[in-house]
Specification:
It is a single chain. The protein has about 550 residues and is of the alpha+beta class. Helix content is about 30%, strand content about 25%. It folds into four domains: about 180 residues, no CATH class; about 150 residues, no CATH class; about 90 residues, Winged helix-like DNA-binding domain superfamily/Winged helix DNA-binding domain (Arc Repressor Mutant, subunit A, Orthogonal Bundle), CATH 1.10.10; about 90 residues, no CATH class. The protein has 15 helices and 21 strands. It starts with a strand and ends with a helix.
Length: about 550
């Protein structure tokens, strides 16, 4: 299947080189000294012109090895341990925007390496096992370059600057990636389904995994730094690997999925590509498990996951991710670093099926609520949706004066709604929590209404009113029917009706039925039928407000 090729954006990696010990570091020092502080060169790569510059980097406080000799046996006679910056950028004639570049920060490494920080404290620098016997850490930070090109561009730049051709050949196994992002730029008039309330970004944050475990963060900011409103300005869902697993089976890495604009987007002409948002996905290194590392050797798998995430989000929002004709596509064609195209190399998008996940969770909630819940189960759900901290069965039992065994039995009967782990209880997902919260609120309201209804009926009876009048009052309260006595005419508000079909006489059958029932109970209570017929009837059907005269509706 041909799918949309995505653009590479940010990239950050630590490449470890140990084959030549500290020799490349000594070489960098000699090259810069010979060139009086910096050395520049130009080269061609894949038919493109690039420029490179090697210079000293601001001192990072690294200290010489004790006794001038590293544990790996290398003699270091330098009083100052300098670090180096190798800047590689596309030639300005070919990159007028000036954002296609990277910096390689070259630092020596050996076992027991120390540094002095800004406060004067001496701290030890962690050194990976592959560099214990001396080597280099080369931190590459760049943007708008295909991920697989960085190493080759760095090696080529090093050679033209004068490094030995044998240096920087093969990164060590501990080399790792800390940031990577892929994106597509879409037209702002088409991107609403991505960041909308029911779009894939919001849905992923609300539906996946337990509401009290793992990590999720939803940001929905529609105001830029100047205070101007721009729908979808910065919308992101950040999820750990556990939560992402439900939507993307087999994915291993935590990510941030985002829809975002450039800071100045609101004030730009629509012909400017920066006036249109990016839809992207990036690695979230901070959410990796303690023992987990994204190794440089995992680059292909990481890029596949990022591509698949973006393509799946676009597809879920209704975008064609394998367009045969780019002419009428919603993708922005004049992005400085991306021209929309398709190829066979990309992964097929995953059907997110967030609707399926939502429907499954809804059916679980509905089934439990319609089957009827015991008082203990209602108390448990009430506490879970109102308490934001950690909740245990013991907490629920103590708060409601129940035996903890009874609470545990009640929770076991609701395992599709709640998860129990290590003495803690939580609702299955944030979406389930929202539905249960609404149900609990409805139950509270129903209880309050029942109490008010009973009180009004008792009050009517105590005033000597008939049973029929008490029944009329109770019926109105039960169905939310509001009666207002106006000077000119009675006003009857029948409430809201959803999912109704309008009949031939312009009135939904459910509305007509409720009105006729109200009229019957009004008459039975001994009230004036003509006043009811002349009443103004109000209701809301399928979100639309409507008004009728009662006598027309009762015909």
């Amino acid at each position: 299947m041909r799918t949309l090729d995505l653009a590479a954006h940010e990239f950050d990696a630590n490449l470890h080189f140990a084959e030549n010990g500290l020799n490349p570091w000594f070489g960098a020092d000699a090259l810069v000294k010979d060139a009086d502080g910096s050395r520049s060169a130009e080269f061609t790569h894949a038919g493109e012109q690039w420029v490179a510059r090697l210079s000293y980097r601001d001192e990072g406080g690294l200290l010489p090895p004790t006794g001038g000799v590293t544990d790996g046996g290398t003699h270091v006679e330098h009083d100052t341990i300098r670090e180096f910056s190798l800047k590689v950028a596309r030639h300005p004639d070919e990159d007028p925007v000036g954002k296609q570049d990277f910096t390689a920060h070259i630092s020596p490494r050996w076992a027991g390496l120390h540094a002095e920080n800004g406060d004067g404290d001496v701290v030890e620098i962690p050194v990976p096992p592959t560099l214990q016997n001396d080597g280099l850490n080369v931190r590459i930070q760049g943007s708008n370059i295909e991920f697989t090109r960085y190493l080759d561009l760095f090696q080529t730049a090093a050679r033209v600057l004068g490094f030995s051709a044998g240096y920087f050949e093969t990164p060590a196994a501990t080399s790792n990636i800390t940031d990577a992002e892929k994106y597509a730029r879409v037209h702002r008039d088409s991107s609403g389904p991505v960041h909308g309330r029911d779009g894939p970004i919001a849905s992923m944050a609300h539906l996946l995994e337990n509401d009290r475990t793992g990590y999720r963060k939803l940001v929905q900011n529609d105001t830029d730094e100047k205070g101007e409103n721009l729908a979808g300005y910065y919308h992101t869902a950040t999820l750990d690997a556990e939560r992402l697993g439900e939507a993307f089976p087999g994915h291993r890495y935590p990510k941030e999925v985002k829809h975002y604009y450039a800071r100045e987007a609101a004030r730009l002409d629509p012909d400017n590509p920066l006036a249109h948002p990016k839809v992207g996905a990036s690695l979230q290194h901070s959410l990796l498990e303690r023992e987990q590392t994204v190794y440089y050797d995992d680059l292909v798998d990481l890029e596949r996951e990022l591509d698949q995430t973006v393509l799946s989000v676009l597809s879920d929002a209704g975008f064609d991710v394998s367009p045969g004709n780019m002419g009428g596509s919603p993708y922005v064609k004049n992005d400085a670093y991306w021209a929309p195209s398709t190829s066979e190399r990309g992964p097929d998008p995953i059907q997110l099926d967030l609707t399926r996940i939502r429907q499954e969770q809804e059916s679980v909630v509905v089934r439990h609520l319609t089957d009827g819940l015991s008082p203990i189960q209602w108390e448990s759900l009430d506490m879970l949706v109102t308490d934001g901290g950690e909740v245990s069965p013991q907490d629920i039992a103590e708060a409601n004066d129940r035996h903890v065994g009874s609470v545990r039995r009640a929770l076991r009967a609701m395992e599709e709604l709640v998860s129990r782990k290590y003495g803690e209880v939580g609702l299955r997902s944030d979406y389930v929590a929202e539905m249960v919260h609404d149900a609990v609120q409805d139950a509270r309201e129903a209880t309050r209404t029942a109490v008010e209804t009973s009180a009004k009926a008792i009050e009517a009876a105590e005033r000597g009113a008939s049973d029929a009048m008490a029944e009329w009052v109770a019926w109105c309260n039960r169905h939310g029917v509001d009666i207002r006595n106006r000077a000119d005419a009675l006003e009857i508000d029948l409430g809201e009706f959803d999912g109704v079909t309008w009949s031939y006489n312009g009135l939904p059958s459910t509305v007509s039925h409720r009105l006729k029932t109200a009229f019957e109970k009004w008459e039975a209570a001994g009230q004036d039928p003509e006043r009811f017929r002349q009443a103004v009837v109000k209701f809301r059907a399928n979100g639309v407000d409507a008004t009728r005269r009662a006598w027309k509706a009762l015909r």
